[in-house]
Every structure is written in structure tokens, then in C-alpha cells.
Amino acid sequence: MSAIADFSTYKVISPIRSALEDDTQVTVLWLDGRTSPYHLLWLRDNCPCSRCVYSVTREQVVEILDIPEDIQAARVTLTDDGNLDILWQDGHASTYDAGWLRAHAYDEESLAERERLKPKKRLWGSSLAVPAFHYTDVMADDAALLAWLLAVRDTGLSLIHGVPTESGALVPVAKRISFIRESNFGTLFDVQSKVDADSNAYTAFNLPLHTDLPTRELQPGLQFLHCLVNDARGGSSTFVDGFKLAEVLREEDPQSFEILTTLPIEFRNRGRSSDYRYQAPIIALGENQEVTEIRMANFLRGPFSTLPATMPLLYRAYRRFITLTRDVRFRYRQRLEAGQLWCFDNRRALHARDEFDPASGARHFQGCYVDRDELHSRIRVLQR
Ligand code: OGA
Ligand code: ZN
Ligand code: ZN
């Protein structure tokens, strides 16, 4: 029976030298000098045996109240192959894989190390060398797929060349990751100048830097934009790294940063048969005050609604943010040509297009969305 209730395997970074027990915990001393305490309740909670975890789903079948709070070990030993064995006083037996234990250690050093090893976002500006990939590689080769997905995760913007210029050709590319997220604009949306446009996106106007669907509780994580034809004059793409702008604002104008991270703004998308609205700050922060999301589309913004004393501060902060989006130091510009596809983190990279002249030639892009969860899940599976 496996000592890991997981679909992954865990490398033994350092073998266990010894394990000491007392009434509340087992302290593991690793050969490389690290010391990791594990509470008895934590260990019993994480028993990987087939009575505690269903081997088919690798999901737990015991609940914490099925285990006495003052659980005691009768015997703690190391197995011949270096794993940790615990015989509990009630007769239950648990074996813990040394690599798994190390990967889940919660001593201070291990927690800090895991924090340090988290993938780092690469912030960028106008001189970005955009990570570029080829359609046939990402379609046929899992290593190329993984390289592309890591670039999307860490840089938030990527380009794919050589995509067939047929309608729907972006679907199999998106499905290399996972499910497409539908919206009221369809599973795929056709970005073309239309007479009966239900969004400024479907005109020939310039579209200022924005994220798509800020009107939803969860903005789509990834956006695909595939160019079928781009023969019209104008219509170049621009991207900015929203995380970079937020960091510049935090540094240069802390008051505006505070306002944009705390005051909710309403975004609206109204159609004849739908009415989407969502209120949230433009910049979202995570538990360590790191920027996790940008929500921004000037053309979808409702009237500001905040106390009179705050209104001038909100306008000041908002103008400051828009000023940053217009700063050439941060703007990466490139015209998308037929057969090319942008894939970017819609909750991070703001995108824009220049005005184009529909009389000068055809312009047809197709787009779709995939959520961030799907990206991270695919990366983990490819990395197993
Ligand atoms: C959109 C959009 C960009 C373009 O449809 O949301 O941003 O280049 N389109 O047309
Ligand atoms: Zn068990
Ligand atoms: Zn858009």
C-alpha cells in the first residue's frame, strides 16, 4: 500500500535522521539539519491508509471528530525504507512517506522556503520580449505546452504563431488547457465592427486598456484573441502589465493606491436581455498585500458612488491610474497578423486596440476565455 494519498510523488530532499515523540507531537530531525514538529492530531488527520483515504479518489473518508482530540501514539519508528511509522494507542497504524512529510512540513523554515519557491511574477514594460510559441509545437508536444503555460502564468502575456486562419481554430488551442468559459457573448466571440454592436469591442473605435468582463464576480482568467484577418488600417494591439502599474502606483502615490485597493467601483454591461453589474476595487490584493488582480474597463464603468469627501480623491486616484496606462514606458505594442494569437492573463494584463478603418480592409478576430484554475490545474498535471 502506498504511503501517499495523492496522485503526485515526492522526492526525498533529505532523509529522516530520527523521530522523537512526546505527548503532543513527533519531532522529525532531518539529515540536512532541519527540525520539523508534527502534531499528533495533524499526523493522525493525514493518515494515508486505505481506511482513512479512499484509494480511488485519494480523498479523505474520516472526519476530524472521528479522531480523539488527545490521540496518543503507542510506538513511533522509522521503516527500513526511511519512512515514518506510527502505531496509535487505539491500534490504528499509519505510515508516512518521508518525501511527502518534508513537502508538508510546517516548521518556520519550511514555510518560509515554500513561500520563497512560489513562482515569481515577471513584471514587464514596453521592452518586453514577448514569450512566443508555435502552434504545431503546443498542439503536439507536452513540453512545449508546459513552457507556454508557465509563460502565461509568470509573464501574463504570450503569442502563438502559425495558427490556421479558419474560424474556430483557437478552440483546440484553448482546449489544450481545458474547458472554455462561456459568456453572454458566446463560447467564441467574433471581434468585428458590427452595426448592431452590443459592446464597444464590436465597433472600429479605439478600445482603451481594459480587462474583459469586469462586470462579473469572477473575471475570466485567460483570454485568447486569434487574428483571422487584419487588412484594415490601424487596429494594433497594446498591452500593459497591470501588476507593474499597481506596484508603480503603490511606490509613487500610496494614497491613490490605498483608494484603488479599497473603494469598490461598479462595472456594468447592459444589453436588451441581460444586465450584469459588479462592484469591486480596481486593484485586488492577496493576504500578503501582493497584487492579485486588476479590474478595469473605462467603457463599462458605472457612475462613481462614494461619499462627497471621498469623490475628489477617487477621481484623483483614477486619473493617476489612467495616466500610468498611457505612459509609453509601460506599453507593449504589436500589431497582430493573420495566424497569430494572443493568450494573456485577463486579470493582470490590460489590453487595448487602436481605432481601425473598416473601409480600408477586413479585420476579424475571434476570442474565448479559460479560467485561471484550469491553467494551474493543467500545469500541475503536466509537472507530476
Ligand atoms: C475585445 C478586445 C481587441 C481587438 O474584444 O474585448 O479587446 O484587438 N478586442 O479588437
Ligand atoms: Zn489511517
Ligand atoms: Zn477586450
TrEMBL record:
Belongs to the gamma-BBH/TMLD family. InterPro entries: AlphaKG_dependent_hydroxylases (IPR050411), GBBH-like (IPR012775), GBBH-like_N (IPR010376), GBBH-like_N_sf (IPR038492), TauD-like_sf (IPR042098), TauD/TfdA-like (IPR003819). Its cofactor is Fe(2+); L-ascorbate. It comes from Pseudomonas oryzihabitans. Its EC number is 1.14.11.8. Converts trimethyllysine (TML) into hydroxytrimethyllysine (HTML). NCBIfam families: carnitine_bodg (TIGR02409). Residues 21-102 form the Gamma-butyrobetaine hydroxylase-like N-terminal domain. Coiled coil: none annotated. CDD domains: CAS_like (cd00250). Keywords: Dioxygenase, Iron, Metal-binding, Oxidoreductase. PANTHER family: GAMMA-BUTYROBETAINE HYDROXYLASE-RELATED, TRIMETHYLLYSINE DIOXYGENASE, MITOCHONDRIAL. It is an enzyme of class 1 (oxidoreductase). GO terms for molecular function: dioxygenase activity. Gene3D superfamilies: 3.30.2020.30, Clavaminate synthase-like. This is trimethyllysine dioxygenase. Residues 124-369 form the TauD/TfdA-like domain. It catalyses: N(6),N(6),N(6)-trimethyl-L-lysine + 2-oxoglutarate + O2 = (3S)-3-hydroxy-N(6),N(6),N(6)-trimethyl-L-lysine + succinate + CO2.
